[in-house]
Amino acid sequence: MSGIRQIGAKRPRLSNQDRWLLKSMDNLLSSDKVFGKKGVFYPSMISNACDRYVYLSYNGILPAQSITGNLQRIFDNGNYLEYRINKYFEKLGIVRKREVPLKLETPNISGRLDFIITHPEYHEVIVELKSINTRNFDLLKVAPKEDHMIQIQIYLNLAAYDHGIVLYENKNDQKLKAFKVDKDPKMWDNILERLFKIMSMTRIPEKCTGESYCQCKLVK
């Protein structure tokens, strides 16, 4: 039938691409970046289970990371997610504060929580926003990922809030999950103990205890 692809017909190859436009956009967005600052712990850094990585990052030894155009677009998409969620919260009339900077002098921790919103059960709560793919979204049943739990515990303790929510959006279909989290003083004590231990180290830890893609492997 006219207009319907015949069964078994060859599919067109992806060869008709404007290479100039694709390359121009990638070149525009590509860069080498050093994340963080020497002598400062950041929540996203602390949430990495690898002491070697945290030591290298804290001491400014990690090399600049090569950011491809595609990776920068992923970062930008995450920023737009925060913009969208803020619009939803504003329509609900629940936004109290957004992008709140947080600091601790010793150990030197610097971070920024995503939202503080009003909540009918807790008066006010911290909201940490994350995007995640379908596979990992489906694995989340009763609690946030461990690294995200560490991050929100840092925010809860630095901002002196008792309750928070880790809000996930599935980047594949925009479904949501919102896990309630209570402030855990014991976890906070463990975080601080780890940071003081890393600050006192006089040599780079030899073993990587992180994921296969841990950036500490870039340093020999």
Task: Please provide a written account of the structure.
Helices cover 38% and strands 24% of the residues. It has helices at residues 19-29, 43-46, 51-58, 69-92, 134-139, 146-159, 185-200; strands at residues 31-33, 65-67, 95-104, 109-119, 123-132, 163-170, 176-182. β4 and β5 form a beta hairpin. Residues 1-7 have low confidence and may be disordered. The protein is built from seven helices and seven strands. The strands form two sheets. The protein has a five-stranded mixed β-sheet with strand order 3-4-5-6-7, sandwiched between helices. It has a two-stranded antiparallel ribbon with strand order 1-2. The chain has a single domain (29-203), classed as Alpha-Beta Complex (Lambda Exonuclease, Chain A), CATH 3.90.320.10.
